[in-house]
Structures are given as structure tokens and as C-alpha cells.
Write a structure and sequence with these properties.
Elements lengths: L2 E6 L4 H8 L4 E5 L7 H10 L6 E5 L5 H9 L4 E4 L5 H11 L23 H7 L1 E6 L2 H5 L1 H6 L5 E4 L1 H8 L3 H6 L6 H11 L3 E5 L3 H5 L8 E6 H19 L1
Parallel strand pairs: 1-2, 1-8, 2-3, 3-4, 4-5, 5-6, 6-7, 7-8
Helix pairs in contact: 3-4
The structure holds 3-hydroxypyruvic acid and magnesium ion.
The site of magnesium ion has 5 residues, from helix 8.
Length: 240
């Protein structure tokens, strides 16, 4: 998962496929979005390998849900509210087959004619991304990044700002060494991990200017729809 992503809460399968033709990655949000397991399977069944990377945000540190996403063919799973080294270890254990973890074997892609990756390929290519979105997680970011098997840290600015008692704008704009975002980036880089950030709209994404991040969820499906509606109404007002 790298580059420009769209974070989806409500899109249909066909809309997700269209988004996959334009963005670097598409995230299906199983925590706050409408997607359950059968929605996830419907998307994965239709996802063409040349399309954008399909990323799943698990509903929680949930071994079963993380397994469903991987079994359906997602390689990248973002797990919310990982607040400690123990949390990160539980996520790693769900993400990887033994001996690295305790993922249970049962890939589903053969059900729709795809070849499942070998156990070693699955382990080598999985992206295990943990969300830093509380004061506790921020305080432990370097230790969490150091957990073997974690491949990336992903900042949830909304929950993190609630936890810190500051605004999202202030959180995104802070650039001092001890400010939340530079601190997460430094913790990730120290351990060779990727960094992603959710912003959800382009104005917020612009606040990340100058920050060294790999992946930004710069829009949501809802933002794109609202922007399209605004643009259509503005142009019909102008032509009236
Ligand atoms: C947050 O900002 O807390 C998120 O989890 C983004 O969806
Ligand atoms: Mg959150």
C-alpha cells in the first residue's frame, strides 16, 4: 500500500472497481463502513489482479475478521486501535501463517478460479499495518513499530486528536519533532516501516505537506460523491 488511496465506507462493488482503476489503493472499511464478510467476498471475487491494491480495515483486533480478509485475497490489512506491543503482537499472530504467526490455512480465492499464494509467498507479501490513534499508542509508537511482522504504522487523526484533546487540524499541521505526526514517522523509519495517514479530504491532505509519508487516504467515497454533486450543481447553475 503506497501512494494515493480512497477510503470507502459505503460504495457498491461496481463503484469500488471504478475507484480501483484510478487510485493506487482502495480501502474497504469494516470498522466504520457498511462492509461485512459477504460484501468483502463480493469485492474480492471481482477484483482484477492488475487493479489497485485492495486494502481492508479490520473492524478491530479480531483474529477471525483479519483471517477473512486474507483468505479472500487482500494482502494489506489495517488494524485499528493498536495501543500496545501486546496488541501489535496479537495482530501479527493473526496475519501470518506459522511459524511466524497463527493464521489458519483456508484461502478462498480458488473458489473463484484464482490460485492462492503459497504459504511462504503469503507470509512474505502480507502488509500488516497497525493504526496509531490514541495517546497510549503514540507513546509506544517506536516499540509497536519494532514488533517483528508489523510492516507499517497508519495514523487515524480523528481518534488520535480526540485522545490527545486537540483538533484534527492542529494534529495534521504539527511539525515539531515531538508533534504527533513527525513522532510517528520517526518511530516507523527507525524500524524501516511504512507510514500511512488518513485525511479523508484533499484540504486536510494538503496539511501533510512536507511530511515524509508513503500512503495517504486523501479522500473517502462519500467525499467524492459530495464533490461530484457540488460540481454538477455549480455547473448547472452557471449554465442556467
Ligand atoms: C481516524 O481518523 O481515527 C480513523 O480511524 C480514520 O478512519
Ligand atoms: Mg479511528
Amino acid at each position: 500500500m503506497a501512494g494515493s488511496g480512497v477510503w470507502c465506507l459505503d460504495a457498491s462493488v461496481s463503484t469500488l472497481l471504478r475507484l480501483g482503476a484510478s487510485f493506487d489503493w482502495v480501502c474497504l472499511d469494516m470498522q466504520h463502513g457498511r462492509f461485512g464478510r459477504s460484501d468483502l467476498l463480493a469485492v474480492c471475487r471481482s477484483w482484477a489482479p492488475e487493479q489497485a491494491a485492495l486494502v481492508v480495515r479490520a473492524p478491530s483486533i479480531d483474529v477471525a475478521a483479519i483471517g477473512w480478509a486474507l483468505d479472500a485475497g487482500a494482502r494489506s490489512v489495517i488494524v485499528p486501535q493498536v495501543d500496545s506491543v501486546d496488541d501489535a503482537r496479537r495482530v501479527v499472530s493473526a496475519m501470518y501463517y506459522p511459524p511466524r504467526g497463527r493464521r489458519s490455512y483456508g484461502p478462498l480465492m480458488p473458489a473463484w478460479g484464482r490460485v492462492a499464494p503459497s504459504v511462504s509467498d503469503a507470509n512474505a507479501t502480507a502488509e500488516c499495518v497497525v493504526m496509531i490513534e490514541s495517546a497510549a499508542a503514540l507513546g509506544k509508537a517506536a516499540e509497536i513499530a519494532a514488533v517483528d511482522g508489523v510492516t507499517g504504522l497508519f495514523v487515524g487523526p480523528y481518534d488520535l486528536s480526540l485522545s490527545l484533546g486537540i483538533t484534527v487540524e492542529a494534529l495534521l499541521a504539527g511539525r515539531s519533532e515531538s508533534a504527533p505526526l513527525p513522532a510517528v514517522v520517526a518511530a516507523a523509519r527507525r524500524h524501516g516501516r511504512a507510514v500511512g495517514v488518513f485525511t479523508g479530504d484533499p484540504a486536510a491532505a494538503r496539511r501533510l505537506h512536507g511530511l515524509d509519508v508513503d500512503a495517504v487516504a486523501g479522500v473517502t467515497d462519500g467525499w467524492l460523491l459530495a464533490a461530484g454533486i457540488r460540481s454538477a450543481l455549480t455547473s448547472s447553475d452557471e449554465s442556467a
